[in-house]
Amino acid sequence: MNKEVLSLISSRLLVALVTLVIVSFAVFFATTMLPGDTATILLGQAATPEAVEGLRKAMHLDEPAFLRFLHWLSGLLAGDLGTSYANDMPISQLIGGRFANTMKLAGVTALFSVPIALTLGITAAMLRGSIYDRAVTILTIGVISVPEFMVATSAVLIFAVYLKWLPALSLANEVHTLSDMLRVYAMPVITLTFVVSAQMIRMTRAAVVETLRTPYVEMALLKGASRTRIVLRHALPNALGPIVNAIALSLSYLLGGVIIVETIFNYPGIAKLMVDAVATRDLPLIQSCAMIFCLGYLILITLADIVAILSNPRLR
Q1: pTM attached to this predicted model
Q2: What's residue 131's pLDDT?
Q3: Spatial CA neighbour of 243 closest among 92, 120, 79, 112
Q4: 95-283 has CATH 1.10.3720.10 classification
């Protein structure tokens, strides 16, 4: 690994770290601007002003916002997510099981969506201009145009209401056998696969088509290499960077974009926990969930950038 590659990787890691600090600042002050008073919401409208003021002092809400931000940031760096206002429990305990559920849902979705998207994207690029390519393009544009709540609602109406094949709610705690797992994860995974795969298909197709237009691929074609060999041996290795970026962008959506899916299917994930925290104005819990989503997004994007750097033949 030469110095230029190390320099580029170091710069990507530094950018990710600076971005995380900026995002933490934005998340904290955006949540503090939410309407309503936390102490009043927790105690109710019948609470006396003295009780409200006492609770505000106990939760350090009477301190300047910047001091509270520094205290919160130092806790994050030390691994302390704080205590939930509404549940009076360590946030790490509240998030633990929910985070595992969200990661399971993301993992199962990735297991289905990535192979499907890569297969359709690569084959569409190999047969560009054909009826198959046009059909895949129209399908992906149609899926992208439909919002995810429409896909989720349609799945509930078709598979739960009319056909009665699957339950309308996805209760992860009721998974004991393989059949239970299929029933619980089927509709959320179908919904997320539709939403995630479409963008991956388009970006994969574009990356492979762009590589197929390069001179060295044309030279391999003139030498009599088959189309399959050209794609697998010449095009794909050089299109790896854009394809990995497409996969990372799509999978990062699974961490922060599952809010609607978890809410519609009542799936006990971290996104559903964040929605409930917004209703009770549980600021530490909202901030922790938001930072977990941002951290996951930055990790995936940074890994994609590093893979793109390492796969660049010019840098090697």
Answers
A1: 0.77
A2: 92
A3: 120
A4: yes
